[in-house]
Every structure is written in C-alpha cells, then in structure tokens.
Design a protein that fits this description.
Number of domains: 1
Low-confidence stretches: none
Order of helices and strands: HHEEEEEEEE
Strand order of the largest sheet: 3-2-1-5
Mean pLDDT: 87
CATH superfamily: minor pseudopilin epsh domain
Distance between the termini: 79 Å
Radius of gyration: 27 Å
Number of helices: 2
Strand content: 15-25%
Largest sheet: 4 strands, antiparallel
Structural class: alpha+beta
CATH class: Alpha Beta
Number of strands: 8
CATH architecture: 3-Layer(bab) Sandwich
CATH topology: minor pseudopilin epsh fold
C-alpha cells in the first residue's frame, strides 16, 4: 500500500509543450483577426472625441458672445497668439475682436483683442478643414459670418467612415454629421 502512495506523489500534473503551443497559436490567430477592427474602433473614437472638442469650441464662442454682448471669433492658429489661415489641424483660438478687423489671416488678433481660449493641435494626425478662415458669433448668438459653414475632420487613414463634420447654419448652431462624408 505504501508503494501506491509514492507512485501518485511522483506523478507530474501540468500541460505538455504541445498543448501550450496550440493555445499560444490560437491566441495569436484571434489577435491577428481582431487587430484591424480594433484599430478602426480606436480611430472612430479619436475622431468622435476630436469633433466634440470643436463643437465645444463653437458653444464656448457662442455663449461668450452672448455673455459679453459683442462678436466673438474662432480662427485657426498654430501659435495660440494670432490667426493662421487654413491650418485648423494645428489648433485654434477663440477671441474677442474689439475693433472688428479680423479676417482669419495673420494679423487678425490685435493688441486690443482678448484671447478667451487656445486649443491645441488635434492628436492622431487628423486633418480639420473649414469652409471659412474665421467664424464669428454676434451678441445674440447668431452667426456673424453669414451663410452655411462646415468643419470637416478626417482621420489620418482617410477612412471616410470615420470622418466627422459639423454643419453650422445662419442660426449659429452646430450640427454633427457622421454619414455621407468624403475625405
């Protein structure tokens, strides 16, 4: 009887090398199959959060225009101190144009103007474009720029399915668009 107990104690319980290699191979195959879909999900999440920042910017400028009782403008800016025409991906600023001479080009922000907030460049190498160099709200919260304008955000991959847009009408209110966009 003693001999039977000794035999069971010496028996090794565990996984063989073949079993371990099969499990590792299955995990590798599953990871390879799910990686592209995961990257697409990450890209969609990035563009969603980035377009929300732009929508927040528009809401900030609109509320500041109403609160201050004067025009508040948004323009592209790569240094946070002055406008930089057509370069929205490098960042943008919200400012009060006290003398009404801003047009979205360099020199738009004068000494008497007040910068309300500076927004940094977009992450993930996304591209933000706009139909205007300068967007302004009047003291009633309506568009002082006039007409319809669009901010289009395209991911680095150029995948139009993950592109996002904000359409702004004469009322000044921004509306998110997620379908039917082209990068």
């Amino acid at each position: 009887m003693k001999r039977a107990k000794t035999k069971n104690i010496n028996k090794i319980k565990g996984y063989s090398l073949i079993e371990l290699l099969i499990v590792v191979a299955m995990v590798g195959i599953l990871a390879a199959l799910s990686a592209p879909a995961f990257q697409d999900t990450i890209e969609a999440t990035n563009t969603n959060s980035q377009i929300k920042v732009m929508l927040t910017t528009l809401n900030l400028a609109r509320s500041e225009a109403i609160k201050r009782g004067q025009d508040v403008s948004i323009c592209a800016s790569n240094d946070g101190a002055d406008c930089d025409e057509d370069d929205w991906s490098e960042g943008w600023i919200v400012f009060v144009d006290n003398n009404g001479d801003a047009d979205g080009t360099a020199g738009s922000v004068d000494g008497g103007d007040v910068i309300i907030r500076v927004f940094d460049a977009l992450g993930a190498a996304s591209t933000l474009t706009s139909t205007t160099d300068l967007y302004s709200y009047n003291s009633l919260g309506f568009s002082a720029t006039g007409g319809n304008h669009t901010f289009l955000l395209c991911p680095n991959s150029g995948n139009a399915a993950n592109a996002r847009s904000i359409d702004i009408g004469p009322s000044g209110r921004g509306r998110r668009v997620e379908e039917g966009l082209a990068c």
